[in-house]
Amino acid sequence: MDGTEDNGGAGRRILLVHDRYRLPGGEDAVFEAERALLERHGWEVSVYCRDNAEVDGHPLRKALLPFTALFSLRTLREVGALLRTIRPAVVHVHNTLLVVSPAVFWACRWAGVPVVQTLHNFRLFCPNGILLRDGKICEDCPAHGLSCAVRHRCYRGSAAQSLVCAGVYALHRCLGTYRHVALIALTEFDRQKLLAFNRATRRPVFDPARLFVKPHFVALPPAFLNTPPLPWQARKNQVVYAARLEELKGLPTALAAWAQLAPAGSPTLLVAGTGPLEEWAKATVRDKKLAVKFLGQLSKPALLALLAESRAALVPSLCYESFALVPAEAHALGTPVLGSDLGNVGAAVAEGVDGLRFAPGDPTALAAAVSELCQLGEAEAWNPAAIQAAALARYAPEENYRQLCEIYAQVEKEGQP
Fold first, then answer.
1. DSSP assignment of 235-285, as one string?
2. 384-395 helix and 325-332 helix, angle to the nearest 10 degrees
3. CA–CA dist 229, 285 (Å, integer)
4. What pLDDT, in 10s, does the model give residues 252-263?
5. Which residues contact 12 (CB under 8 A, 6 or more apart)?
6. How far is the CA of 178 from the CAs of 5, 40, 96, 148, 312, in angstroms?
7. Which of 192, 221, 184, 185 lies closest to 329 in space, CA to CA?
8. What is the pLDDT of residues 266-285, one digit of tens each?
9. What is the full DSSP assignment across 352-376?
10. CATH pick for 13-217+396-414 out of 3.40.50.10890, 3.40.50.720, 3.40.50.2000, 3.40.250.10
11. What whole-number distance in Å separates Cα of residue 141 and Cα of residue 148?
12. Which of 125, 169, 275, 355 could form a disulfide with 337 if both were Cys (CB 3.0 to 4.6 A apart)?
């Protein structure tokens, strides 16, 4: 059966595995979205989910967590039983930290079922997952070993928890666990980073031939898909920052840039979100009388509507980001992006085509990019319809499903290495 066809999932069985964090996040949303996508295409989806909060209130479970995080016998037993019962064509894992553990991969291997994992972060090589320390890009662990994370307390600011997290990946490097798993990177930037890190290790962590690229998809409500995007000049003179209000996401850079813009004619900055810098940011805007408005946390439909009527989205991130969701959503609405020239944000912006890049953390460079954005807009350089068409070709759910089925088909064909 050709899994790449529209009805390729009809009657096929898959097991999805996910370890939920205590606080819901993007990985949980992606897990549910891909689950729904597969079910819509007729896959018989079974789910094995556990939650890191399950150790709360259980002193013995909590005490044993450093050991069960390394290799959970419960996961091995329960997933093994599921595999014997449902006999899936493939297993797709999203997160294993902490309670699921990489034992799930051994259950699949011993059952002879091919398995793929989506890498939502860089945790295979960096215990905190984001290659960031003290607000700056850090690649010490890939270059010098996982002990760096313990020394710097990179996981939740705790040496003990960092030791557990680093220990999980150190053990499974020794066991060769990930060399038997097909991996999905979210972007080509991620793929190149992972390949570089893999080459730098004394013993490869994974098989480079089994590393695929598949981004998340952007599911727009029908109202946006059935209506042509607004021309750039017909949009409101505003730019949208939609992210957590913190230094890592570049909020101070944004406010400093707006302080350099001429008040007359410059777009208003709309800040959507909450976070630790909220009170500081509001005080800064009041003191400097900046053209900035705070909207608080918006629902997804409200944010999409805002992006669709605005002249640009602003993503001044200071880190690599695992997947640049706001640029993808903005582009799907025909909206240009002002993005820091770093990691997945910079890689998501085609200079002068669907946005502009600027040096990360540089307010002067950002202010210049805002001015250039407006000049290009007045010259009718931005083509929202073309921006949207290109984005939908990359991020539409059906395209995502096609790519997912291609990966499953290849993994099934190859089987367990």
1. SEEEEEEES-SSGGGTHHHHHHHHHHS-TTTPPEEEEE---TTHHHHHHHH
2. 130
3. 31
4. 999 999 999 988
5. 1, 3, 42, 43, 44, 89
6. 29, 30, 12, 21, 40
7. 221
8. 999 999 999 999 999 999 99
9. TTTEEEE-TT-HHHHHHHHHHHHHH
10. 3.40.50.2000
11. 6
12. 355
Classify residue 296 by burial, with Cβ atoms within 10 Å: 0-12, 13-18, 19+. Answer: exposed
Helix extents (H) in 131-237 = 140-144, 147-151, 159-175, 188-200, 222-225
Exposure pattern of 225-263 as b/e (b: 16+ CB <10 Å)? eeeebbebeebeebbbbbbebbbbbbbbbbbbbbbebee
- pTM for the structure as a whole: 0.89
CA separation for the pair 92, 111 (Å, rounded): 15
> pLDDT, tens digit, for every residue of 1-58?
344 444 467 679 999 999 998 777 778 889 999 999 999 999 999 999 999 889 888 8
DSSP 351: B
Residues in the chain: 417
3-state secondary structure of 76: helix
Task: Please tell me whether residue 294 adopts helix, strand or coil conformation.
Answer: strand
Going by C-beta distance under 8 Å and a sequence separation of 6 or more, which residues neighbour residue 228?
385
Spell out the domain ranges in the chain. Answer: 13-217+396-414, 222-395
Whether domain 222-395 has CATH 3.40.50.2000: the reply is: yes
Q: Phi/psi class of residue 228: alpha, beta or left (left: φ > 0; alpha: ψ in -120 to 50)? A: beta
